[in-house]
Each structure stands twice: as structure tokens, then as C-alpha cells.
Amino acid sequence: MANGRMAIRMAAVLALVLAMVVGNPALSGACACGAFVANDKLDAVQETALVELTGRTESITLAVQARSEATQAAFLMPVPARARFEMADGELFAELDRISRPDVEVRRVTVDGEGGAPPGSAPGATVVDHVEIGPYEVAQLAGSDATAVTQWLGDNDFTLPTALGGALAPYLAEGWLVVAVRLAPTSGSLASGLPPMRLTFETDTPVYPMRLSATAERRQPLRLYVLADHRTDVSNPAPEGAAPELTFAGEVRPDPQYPTLSAALTGPRFLTRYDAELSPELITDDIRFTRSATDEPHRELVIVTEYVRSPWPDPAVLLILTALALAAGAVVIVRRRSAKRDAPTKP
């Protein structure tokens, strides 16, 4: 009896986790680490993530600023092993931004003019965990193939676009799980972004999932922080395009100025930051992490050019005025000499 009640409860909870608005076809949008399905158009404006590497344990803290009026949405993220889900403090990314902020050099240029899964679901699909935290309800789904997982999601009113369902296949073939998160924003829409979330799992090969982003419709902006024992190199998920750009590398220690980050530090660690804007059609792999050959610090230098209005007239005007002044001076000199020659001689 207890097992029956548990099965009924799990079925009800997971149906709620993945339910979309009945009668409204879901719209999809991919971000760099996963994918959204929403009841209104959703555009990722900026995705920011912190990857923490400690031995075999990897944690991904994720914040997505989205431009959307959607009131219901779900988020999918493949992970290589069963994950622990938690809420995260958004202040973390504000602190990381202050720590890694580029140096700014202002150069002034003078110009002329103005400047300026329940029992009985599809075979091969199994719900391995569920949790309710804050505004999120989360299910972790394991499947032997993409068809079974896609069917399970469809049976729970979670409509996956064909391309996105196909993009899950390589992950499932490698034995990964799919984390499905129901987003219930308290603001009534997703216009103000998503509350930061944190996933922790075990892995022998640190990775930031990217392959689902190949199904996106527009370029994917990403800011990726890596916190590890040493400076970290990242692979390029879009080999035919520009690689993520290193913008900061340096040691961080517990500091009262950064209380949120300091709470996660037991001693000095190395923070590396990369920024990228990736073309979906070029994405073929995940981001993978390796130790850099050096722990040399790095901070990006941003040169800001300010155009200011010149206090002097246009150069052409200056040349004309100078020529006129010289001509006028020459006339005065000639007249003075003529006056001296014409002057009467004293007896």
C-alpha cells in the first residue's frame, strides 16, 4: 500500500513538474548548458555559470537572464551522473564580476565636431529522483534511448521539438541523466531572469554541457567562471568558430568584501573566467576543462576611446587664417617701407 501511495504521489508531482499549459504548444530556446521549453517566446540575454572542481566532484551554479513574458517554463540539462539540486545566491555572480572586472584604460581622441517518470511510463525511461526547492520542482530522468525519454516527456505534456529531442540522444547513449526543472517565477513572468540554481555531481571528466545549444536559433552569450586548484584551460565547443576568450585568471582567498564566495572557500583557490558568444550551427561538443601549463595571473585590458570636441577651428580654417595673417603682415611691412622711401629728406 505504501508503495502504491508513493507511486501515485510521484506520478502527481512529476506530472506537475513537467506540465505545460494545456492547449498551448511549447516554444523552445536553448542556452549554453541546456534548453528551455516555455509557453511564450524566451530569448536568453546572458548566461553566467560558475563551475567548481574539487577532486571528482563538479558543481555548476547557473544564472540566466532571459527576455520573455512566459509564465510557465521548464529547463532541461544533461548531467553525467545523478545530481544534487540546490538554490543559489545571486550575489555570488555580482562578487565574481567585481573580482574579475577588466582594467579600463581611457584614451581621449580629439575630433572636430560632436563626438560621441512514474511506474508504467515508457519502457527505458526511469525517474531516479525528484525534489521541490523554492520556486523550482525538479525531476531527474534516466533513459536507455532518446525515443523512450522523449515519449515519457510527451506523456507528461512536455512537448520537445524534434531537434532538441535528437540532441539528447548522444548524452543518453553515454549514460547521462536529464535534469528537468519546472520554473514557477514568483514575479509572474521570466522577464527578470531565473533564480540561480546549483547542480552537484560526480565525474571523472569535468565538463560543461553545450551540445543542446546547437538547436538554438541565435548566438549564445556565455560567461563561464571556473574555480579550481589551478588556472584552467577550456576546450572550444565550436571548433570552426572563435574560442571562448580568457578575460581573468587569479588566486582568490576568503575575503570579507566577498562574503558569498568566501563561504565556499576553505583556503586559496584559482579563479578563471572566459567569455564567449557562440554560433549554434558551429557547436559540436561540450566544454571540457584541463589544468593550464601555468598559474600566471591575467586580467583583460579594455581600452575605451572617448572622442572630444576640439577647442580649435577646423585645420583648413586655421590654414586660411594663418595665410591671411601672413599676407596682412606682409602688406603692413611693404607699406611701412614705402612710407619711409617717400618721406621728405630733412635738410
From TrEMBL:
Keywords tagged on the record: Membrane, Signal, Transmembrane, Transmembrane helix
Domain of life the protein comes from: Bacteria
PROSITE patterns: PROKAR_LIPOPROTEIN
Transmembrane residue ranges: 316-334
Extent of the signal sequence: 1-28
Name of protein: Uncharacterized protein DUF2330
InterPro entries: DUF2330
